Amino acid sequence: MGRRRKGEAVSGWICLDKSYDLTSTHAVSRVRRIFNAQKAGHAGTLDPLATGVLPIALGEATKTVPFLMDADKVYRFTIAWGRTTATLDREGETLAASDVRPTVSQVEALLPRFLGEILQVPPAYSAIKVDGERAYDLARAGEAVELKARPIRIHEARVTDAPDADHVTLEVACGKGTYVRALVRDIAEALGACGHVSELRRTRVGGFDAASAVTLELLEDLGHKARQLEALLPVETALDDIPALAVTDEDAFRLKQGRSIVLVPRQVEAVKARLKPGSRTVSAMAGGSVVALCEMRAGRLEPARVFHLGKSGEEPDVDYGRTQG
C-alpha cells in the first residue's frame, strides 16, 4: 500500500459563490481546509475583483477538472464608459479618457459582430505564459507584453441593463478561453469610446450555476457544525456533457485495473448517438457512481482516468493499484 496522504479522503464538487477581492487559489485553500481534504483544485480562474461561480474539486473530482475547464460559461458584467485602464478593470491605472458615451442602441447594434468564432487578443494582465513568465508579472514589471490573438466562441450576447449614461450591463454566454476584460476593450474601441469592466460576475460554468452556489461563510458555518458534506456535489456533476454508460460490476473491476472492456453492438450505437462531434470520451458508471472516463475505440472502452469512490463521496482505504490520471 502506498503512503496515505494527510487529510480526509473526501471526493466531490463544491459550487462556490466566490466573493469580491478573493483569489481563486485562496478560495481553494479555504474550502480544502473546511473539508480537511487530501487534495483540491478549481476549474477556471476568477479574477479577485470578479464574483460568482467557482467550481472547486475535492479528491477524485480533481480528475474531472479538465472536462469542466472546456465547459461553456455565462458572465454578467458592467462596462463603465470614459476610461481605459492598464488592467481593463476599475483597479488599473488610467491609460486614456474620453467623453464618448455610447447609447444602448449602439451597443446592441454592435454585438452581432462579436458572435460566433472570433479572434481575441488576451489582456496583458493575464496568467498566460510568455517565455516561461506570467504575462501579468511582466506587465507589472513595466515590460511590453504582446500576446497573440486566439480563437474563442461567443454563443450569445445581450444588454440587460443601463442604469445611467456612464454604464451598461451585458450578459454573455461563451466558450473556453474568453476574457471578458478583452471583450470590453474591443467593444469600446469599436464604438470609438474608452471603457473598462467595473463589475464582473460569473453565473454559470457547465452544469454549475449561481442559483445553487454556496458562499464561503455558509460553508464555514456548516463546517463548524460538522455538516459540510451537505454542500458536496457528486464527482459526476462535472460530466454532464459526457455520455454515460452503465457497466457490470465485473467490467467495473476490469476498468479499475486499467484494462479495457468489450461493448456489444447495441451499446456502441447508443454511445455513438450521444457523443459530441470529434469526441470519444465515455463515462463508465456502476452503482450510480463513475468508475472511469474512457475512450471508445473499435467497440471497446479503454480507461483513461480511473476513479475509486466509496459512499458519500469518500475514497475507499484500499489501494487498487490505480492508474495515473
Largest sheet: 9 strands, mixed
The proportion of residues forming helix, as a percent range, comes to 10-25%
The CATH homologous superfamily of the largest domain: Pseudouridine synthase
CATH architecture of the largest domain: 2-Layer Sandwich
CATH topology of the largest domain: Pseudouridine synthase
Proportion of strand residues? 25-35%
Can you put this structure into words, describing what you see?
- With 325 residues, the chain is α+β, with helices and mostly antiparallel strands.
- The chain folds into 3 domains: 88 residues, Pseudouridine synthase, CATH 3.30.2350; 133 residues, Pseudouridine synthase, CATH 3.30.2350.10; 72 residues, Roll (Archaeosine Trna-guanine Transglycosylase, Chain: A, domain 4).
- The strands form 4 sheets. Strands 1, 2, 3, 4, 7, 10, 11, 12 and 13 form a 9-stranded mixed sheet that branches. The chain has a 5-stranded mixed sheet with strand order 14-16-17-18-15, with helices on one face.
- A hairpin with a 2-residue loop joins strand 12 and strand 13.
- Helix 1 packs parallel to helix 6.
- The chain is globular and about 70 Å long.
- The C terminus is likely disordered.
